Amino acid sequence: MNHYQELIKKLSSNISTDIVDLNIRRKKGTAPTQAFSDFLTHSEQGDWAENLLHSSIEKYFQPDLKPVKYGKSDKIIAGDPGFKKFYLSYQDELDTIGKRPDLLLYTPQSYKPQWGSDISQLSLSDLKTIVPMALSGLEVRSSAYLTKRFSPKDDRPFLSFTPKVEDLLVVLKWIETYGVPHYYVQVFFDAIYLIPFAKILEILGVSNITIKGIKNKKIYGTFNGLPAFAIEKNPKNQFKETIHIYLNQGILISEKIDSPGLEGKTKELEGGRLLHYVRFNGGHAEIKTNFLEIIQSAFE
After folding, report:
1. Terminal Cα distance for the chain, rounded
2. Given CB 3.0 to 4.6 Å as the disulfide criterion, which of 44, 66, 89, 229 pairs with 111?
3. Residues 193, 247: contact at Cβ < 8 Å?
4. In this structure, what are the phi and psi dihedrals at residue 227, rounded to the nearest 5 degrees?
5. Residues 6+ apart with CB under 8 A from 283
6. What is the pLDDT of residue 208?
7. Are 217 and 211 spatial neighbours (Cβ–Cβ below 8 Å)?
8. Which residues contact 114 (CB under 8 A, 6 or more apart)?
């Protein structure tokens, strides 16, 4: 166990089960039977955010950092032939190694050119030696908001990073497996924010909390005197509880983003059902130099 794994284990043990119960055994999901247009559009937006970050890191931080695609990239959805088999295999992987972050970052010394820029299709056996050499892993999330146009409300003072409870469980499993520092990156259409996974655990572990409601509790937390997070505790939907870690707890790494182009697309499913969705193309983000400093200081 390396220093980072020891830190994550300590921070996660400090979290009260009244806030998030990380001792719960993860339940395997059930494969959905059909997809919808909204799902495809959200998936395309997520791919755009990942590609935007990948290309921007390559542009601004070579040769110091080499970004490599690592997260599952199979373009198969509910309704496609073989989807159920793929879904069940993915659930098994989550239990075996945890959830892969979308991107891995390597130093010039640890990166091997023969890997290329995408290792997502390599076997777990091959990845067993490749992944631990990474400097960090980035879980990339997208949001449809413009941060500069957001209107704060009493119950939502900030936009947020939005991991689910089940996400924390499988990220912890991945860190336990590989020992690589993990970060959440939230990509908006006018800004990009980053937060270390360790900071999320720290916030949940030492925050002062306020609980509103009885049956469906909503927990609000402060960290160092500032609003830090909100969690809606629905006992009927334990694993889907979403944790809103406010952006004021993260780090702004870009506030200069060119908007992507939009393209209408159609996908035909078995039986002739059509799904219409939007594809996002292009765009550019200027990443601040503090990003490199954050990544390089992970083990300090």
Report:
1. 16
2. 66
3. yes
4. -55, 135
5. 48, 52, 257, 258, 259, 260, 261
6. 84
7. yes
8. none
- Cα 77 from chain centre: 20
The string of DSSP codes covering 156-224 is: B-S-EE--BHHHHHHHHHHHHHH---EEEEEE-SS-EEEEEHHHHHHHHHH-EEEEE-SSSEEEEEEET
- If DSSP states are collapsed to H, E and C, what string results for 230-255? EEEECHHHHHHCEEEEEHHHCEEEEC
Burial 276-287 (b: 16+ CB within 10 A, else e): ebbbbeebebeb
Amino acid at 192: I
Q: Tell me which of 155 and 276 has the higher pLDDT.
A: 276
Alpha-carbon 210 to chain mean position = 26
Between CA 9 and CA 22 the distance in angstroms is: 11
Regarding beta strands 160-161 and 243-246, do their DSSP bridges make them parallel or antiparallel, or are they unpaired? antiparallel
